[in-house]
Amino acid sequence: MSCSTDRMVRSARAWVLAGAVLVAQASCVRTPPGPGPRTVPALSASPAPRAVPPPTTASPAAVDRALPSAPLRRPCTPAAWPRPEGRTRRILVAGAARRLLETGYSESTARFEARPEGSLPRRDELIEPSNLRQPLAGCSDDPGGRLASAGALYRDDATGLEIGVTAVEPAGKSGRGWLGARCSYRLRDTRDPTLYAALEPALVAPFNELSGVIRQGQAVFVRLSFNGYAAEIGGRGNYLVALDLCTHEVKWRSADLSSNAPFVVLDRYVITGYGFTRERDWLYVLDRGSGAIVQRVALPNAPEALMVSGASGGAVLAVGLYAGELQFALHP
Length: 332
Prior knowledge:
Layout: H1 3-28, H2 60-66, E1 92-94, E2 112-113, E3 129-130, E4 141-142, E5 153-156, E6 161-173, E7 179-189, E8 196-199, E9 209-216, E10 219-225, E11 239-244, E12 249-253, E13 264-266, E14 269-274, E15 282-287, E16 293-298, E17 303-309, E18 316-321, E19 325-330
Antiparallel strand pairs: 1-19, 2-3, 4-7, 5-6, 6-7, 7-8, 9-10, 10-11, 11-12, 13-14, 14-15, 15-16, 17-18, 18-19
């Protein structure tokens, strides 16, 4: 054999050995298993029914977690209503008469109280009414038979409330022969529409109009009154209603003929009055938690203005009357 032939034989053997090594290495490589042959189950005369799991009910917490996140409005805090006392107390103690103000301040009962939050006015702060009769007129009786229109609105910046007439129901004639109405009202926070309360017809006596409101947080105190004799409305009307803007509840309604005068909210009590020409005149202390009468004080004539001065526990209530002024020490 020649040298060239020998080199060719050795080269061929090398290629054969290299191929064998590659085959051996390939056999050691792991490959992912394929789908494999499909197994077809044997047919039977009556196949077994497939088990269906029972339905499940997700818990509210699970539902909340499943929902996409979204910004939520901060929940409101209901008003803090004190527990009713259920007994009478001597809150007002008569003192010496004095001038209510150097200017002889006096306001008509047909005015509208509106003051910021806070249970005790400052020494020099009066319950300065805003005139409510004009924008919401026509919810009492009228000699010309003019009635209010549903949709009338009044916005009060002091309390942050929008007061609207939602319905007007003809009420026939009052005892003085004038046509009148019974209105429904809605009070709503001007910045947060979820804070609101309503005065439905069952809560509003005929011929009585919304003539005053005081707000403390989410608690609202409303006066419904009639500018006339009690006999002209059958003795039904002139009272206060307490509302909660957060829960939209009516907390209480005071007795008939307990308020057609200004009123103040002081700690656990609401102080107001009632009086009219040739009628008995009274100053009332109401329980702020229930509206029940805690104390009643006879007055020489009708109350027309109230002012509180001093600190809680040693405050003084000055009452401006139709003629004259009175002063009472407060012992809440």
